[in-house]
Write a structure and sequence with these properties.
353 residues, alpha/beta, 14% strand
Length: 353
């Protein structure tokens, strides 16, 4: 049964903190969309990546040149570069890129499906200074492989996670896209993760973007969303594995129960991205209409300082159902990746009241 555990003082203090973070807006987490190539064809892919992309990989030197203003502005190792795609492990120069990033004072990590992550690649990337990694595992074997469209994906991803967890050298988590086929598998999946020494787990729902927009069966119903929140809350109370809901949405009465802090969409506030064609935006899943500049014409830090107002001043999101919502001060209209080019919310509110 849901319990309303709202703490008004903590929520007020959080809003003060969020306002300060927005005013300071340090760029301390930067995605690099290094490739659109991918070795899987997942049913829920937001980018609709393919094995042979028509878009060539971004030359690393172009990206490194764009980072020069950050290197001058911030102290070493205060900004983390999250290398994503597509599938970053398809880049044969990935370790060389990471090594150069460390030499220039940046932490770095990758987001991967784990299909190519074996012991040799693990040693190579750790030796190049990789400090963090996120691997996807989307249910038990049959369900995961169905979603990922590959019969070997589950075993490869689980093998990668075993290797990562056992090494003790990396900050890591496993992420699970929760949908109608895997919701009831979450308790079993939890036991699989614990049995394999995996201690950090994050859940999120699937946004109707990319391929997922054509597959309505991936969207949870309102009762299923609440069931997922109850599972997260109960698992966190158990304390056997560090589970949290992602930063994708405000959860209403569950805010104090499903994550370590309150919902905070940091897109354009602390989080930026350089996309495959050089476009400068916030997290890569945001609609491309919100692009703020391009590294081939603009200085990355000048764009960061002078633009992104659409993400730092979100009063424009107080429209439609949000205009009448008593929780708007806490939510600010939700996550930027759920806004269309016209500013409309493409997904229903997940808040439970």
């Amino acid at each position: 049964m849901k319990t309303n555990r709202r703490n008004p003082l903590k929520r007020w203090l959080f809003r003060v903190f969020r306002r300060n973070e927005t005013e300071i807006h340090e760029l301390n987490y930067l995605f690099w969309e290094c490739t659109w190539r991918c070795n899987l064809s997942c049913r829920h892919c937001g980018s609709d990546c393919k094995a042979e992309s028509h878009v060539v990989d971004m030359p690393f030197q172009d990206f490194l040149h764009a980072l020069e203003p950050l290197e001058k502005r911030y102290k070493p190792y205060t900004t983390t570069i999250a290398i994503t795609g597509g599938e970053p492990l398809l880049r044969q120069d990935l370790a060389a890129c990471g090594r150069a990033l460390r030499q220039h004072g940046f932490r770095w990590g990758i987001v991967t499906n784990g299909l190519l992550y074996d012991e040799a690649r693990h040693r190579e990337l750790v030796a190049a200074g990789m400090g963090s990694i996120t691997v996807s595992l989307d249910g038990l074997e049959a369900t995961h492989n169905w979603l990922r469209n590959n019969p070997h994906s589950y075993q490869r991803a689980l093998g990668a996670l075993r290797l990562i967890a056992a090494s003790g050298q990396l900050t890591y988590d496993v992420v699970t896209c929760v949908h109608q086929r895997n919701l009831l598998e979450l308790p079993q999946l939890k036991e699989v993760l614990i049995e394999n020494g995996i201690r950090h787990w994050r859940l999120f729902t699937i946004a109707p973007i990319g391929r997922a927009a054509a597959n309505g069966d991936l969207q949870l119903t309102r009762p299923q969303v609440e069931e997922m929140f109850r599972f997260i809350a109960e698992t966190r109370r158990e304390g056997r594995i560090d589970l949290k809901f992602s930063c994708e949405a405000y959860t209403g009465d569950y805010e104090e129960q499903v994550r370590d802090s309150y919902f905070f969409c940091r897109a354009g506030i602390n989080i930026g991205s350089v996309l495959i064609n050089g476009d400068i935006s916030a997290c890569p899943n945001i609609n491309r209409s919100f692009v703020q500049g391009n590294i081939y014409q603009d200085d990355l830090m000048e764009i960061w300082d002078q633009r992104f107002q659409v993400m730092r001043q979100r009063d424009w999101m107080r429209c439609g159902p949000c205009a009448r919502c008593r929780d708007y001060r806490q939510c600010l209209g939700g996550a930027m990746h759920l806004r269309s080019a016209q500013g409309e919310n493409i997904m229903r509110c997940l808040a439970v009241r």
